[in-house]
Amino acid sequence: MYFESFADFLEMGRHGFYVWTAYGVSLALIVTNLVAMVHRRRQVRAEIRRASRREEAVENHPRNEQSS
């Protein structure tokens, strides 16, 4: 589709509000999903580190060491 001016492009044949709102909502959802994914990944890694440290502490506790 060919537009006479940039304003015509933004207007999208009187459908500009719908088109740009759809693009904006889509972009917002994509960014929100990416941010949530990164945040959740950090949480999971932190949980794994904590669990690993707990297991290591339990294994290295003097009561759990077996004498040979």
Characterization of this structure:
By secondary structure, this protein is mainly alpha-helical. The longest helix has 45 residues, at 16-60. The protein has two helices and no strands. It has a domain at 28-57.
What are the defining features of this structure?
68 residues, mainly alpha
Reconstruct the topology from this structure.
Blueprint: H1 6-11, H2 16-60
Shape: rod-shaped
Low-confidence stretches: none
The helix/strand series, from N terminus to C terminus, equals HH
Main β sheet profile: none
Number of helices: 2
Rg value: 27 Å
Structural class: mainly alpha
> Termini, distance in Å?
83 Å
Helix content estimate: over 70%
Strand tally is 0
Oligomer: single chain
Q: Name the beta content range.
A: under 5%
- On the 0 to 100 scale, the average pLDDT is 91
Task: Kindly summarize this structure in a few lines.
With 68 residues, the protein is mainly α. The chain has helices at 6-11, 16-60. It has a domain at 28-57.
